[in-house]
Amino acid sequence: MAHLFLVKDIAFQAGLSTATVDRALNGRPGVRQQTEMRVKAAIAELEKQQAGAMDSGRMLAIDIVMETPQRFSDTVRTAFEAEMAAFLPGGFRCRFHFAEVMKPAEMVQLLDRIRLRGTHGIVLKAPDVAEVTAAVARLAAAGIPVVTLVTDLPNSARITYAGADNRAAGETAAYLIGEVLGNRGGKVLVTLSSGRFRGEEEREIGFRRVIRAHYPKIGITEISEGHGTDAATGTLAAAALAADPTINAVYSIGGGNRAVLAAFDAAKRPVGVFVAHDLDADNRTLLAARRIGYVLHHDLRTDARSAFRAIMSRASASGRAVPASLSSVEIVTPYNMPAGD
């Protein structure tokens, strides 16, 4: 394979050993087709990153680690790649590690492997559990800064959080739903991908607080552990609708919105108002089709920029405190939806 990069850089990007990459590059026997594809993809990624990077300034290689549905990870990748190409005064090279469902032990194993291999920093979306917090402590002890993304690990050794004010986002969702339902009342189906994520918990806390204080005629039914996947979330939503005929609204914290709407359709039940998070491809389509009413959106490029700045600040001045950076929440309707990338 023709390339302009060091074997160790290709290996870092592909997540393979230098020996394996060397065998693949030189066409030696014993290399699986899947491995060859990973090496080719790594070279293509490096070429793309190099095209957008500055000729001067320090190049920092970082890892983006997330447990999240693919529709959201695709949006995050697009945001980080766009910001990576524009970031000044230095350059970043990102390696992405995404999984829709990852057990805490698998997440810890991945973080430990990155620590042992080496990195300039980690941007992390992970559940707030003790095992992950311990892994972050090991990264900090090794001098590797960790920035939490979208959902925080406030009791960990992370250097800062980049994302929206999740509690305020939940309060905003409660206001939108409460004003639409008004005196009609009813019950809101609140969907979480998993109760292990602090960001989702904060959204739910904010939502419940405002509903309880200002809209006492509106009840709440919660479903969780669908992990944002359509199959599992749809099954949970169908069961909730079958059990409660008063559900007439949705606050989707964890995604799987197509499946939730399909459950309402199958039950021949109307949705009075539907509030979702994030302008991923699914939500754009559903918003344009008027299947959902509002999307609470925050700019992931702003989050990426905040993460880059925090890691660069720590790389240039070890020990300096990095303040949390909260991106603003925007209420998006079919009439003010920003253009896609």
Protein architecture, described:
The chain is α/β, with parallel strands linked by helices and 341 residues long. It folds into three domains: 1-51, lambda repressor-like DNA-binding domains (434 Repressor (Amino-terminal Domain)), CATH 1.10.260; 52-162 and 300-326, Response regulator (Rossmann fold, 3-Layer(aba) Sandwich); 166-297, Rossmann fold, CATH 3.40.50.2300. It contains twelve helices and twelve strands. It has helices at residues 7-14, 18-25, 33-52, 70-86, 104-117, 130-141, 166-181, 198-214, 230-243, 257-266, 281-288, 300-316; strands spanning 59-67, 91-99, 122-125, 146-149, 160-164, 186-191, 218-223, 247-252, 273-277, 294-297, 325-327, 330-332. The strands form two sheets. The chain has a six-stranded parallel beta sheet with strand order 2-1-3-4-5-11, with helices on both faces. The longest helix has 20 residues, at 33-52. The chain is elongated. The two termini are 31 Å apart. The model has no long low-confidence stretch (mean pLDDT 90).
